[in-house]
Amino acid sequence: MAVSLEGKLVVAISSRALFNFEEENRVFETSDDHAYMQMQLERLEEPAKPGVAFSLVRKLLAFNDTNTQRVEVVILSRNDPVSGMRVFRSAQHYGLTIQRGSFTRGQPPWRYLRPLRANLFLSTHLADVRAALDAGVPAAQVYPQSVLASDAHPNEVRIAFDGDAVLFSDEAERVFQSEGLNAFQAHEASKASQPLAGGPFKPVLEALHRLQAEGRQPDQPMRIRTALVTARSAPAHERAIRTLMSWGIEVDEAMFLGGLPKGEFLREFEPDFFFDDQTGHIESASQHVPAGHVASGVSN
């Protein structure tokens, strides 16, 4: 029987997003790839430390059991194959069941997303993230300097999303950018009953919703908790809520912050990852939680 990833939640991730390779990366940037390869080879028996997206990956993989494989994580990396050995060994050390990977030695790896049918791509390389988004794959640039996820919720995958240009289209954001806050509020109030079009991360939220439903078994301890964290405020909140209702998707929490910095609110929610389209919000968030930039929409 042919092997297939059909029906699984497929997460493609770069090695630097999964593991902390910042010291090795500095060698690469100040020297050449041969020095980098030699360092990785010398550290082959030394497991890499967890990176920014480590907690998210570990918890998603916990939805798998001996009978059902609901989640597939694939390494998609600009690393060379020699360095790839350390990536797989590090994953094995932490008990992460990761069996597949592509290592392209500097060439863009995003082109392998389509044959993987990836639901999500996480990378520290902005050009690869932009290319993935252009190809229709939800993707985010992981900020390596982000604070790592809290370990306070071991049986709960917590993910927070911005709204406009992330879960939703950038229709309303374009009004705000071109005409200002008052015009934006009036526009959204007048269209409160008209659902927004989906943004690049709508499929991710849908996939998580399916995973939650499929994994809701008596012997399955893992759960998913989602939050909408947006700069919107009343009266523009209603359209966002009604849009989610029209999709048949519920989020557990919604924060309408009216332009307040998101970082401290995210610190209290303690997500395993936060996605936003604006670098200012990501810089605020990364001081408190793992964060990634969705380089889509009018702001980008």
Concise overview:
This protein has 300 residues and is α/β, with parallel strands linked by helices.
Explain the overall architecture:
This protein has 300 residues and is an alpha/beta fold. The chain has 2 domains: 134 residues, 3-Layer(aba) Sandwich (Rossmann fold), CATH 3.40.50; 138 residues, Rossmann fold, CATH 3.40.50. It is 38% helix and 18% strand. It contains 13 helices and 12 strands. A 10-stranded mixed β-sheet has the order 5-4-1-6-7-12-11-8-9-10. It has a two-stranded antiparallel ribbon with strand order 2-3. α13 links the parallel β11 and β12. α2 runs antiparallel to α3, α3 runs parallel beside α5 and α12 crosses α13. The protein is globular, with a radius of gyration of 19 Å. The model has no long low-confidence stretch (mean pLDDT 93).
Measured as a percent range, the helix fraction is 25-40%
CATH homologous group name of the largest domain: HAD superfamily/HAD-like
Query: What is the end-to-end distance?
Result: 44 Å
Reading the helices and strands in chain order gives EHEHHEHEHEHEHEEHHHEHEHEHE
Q: What would CATH call the class of the largest domain? A: Alpha Beta
Could you report the average pLDDT, rounded to the nearest whole number? 93
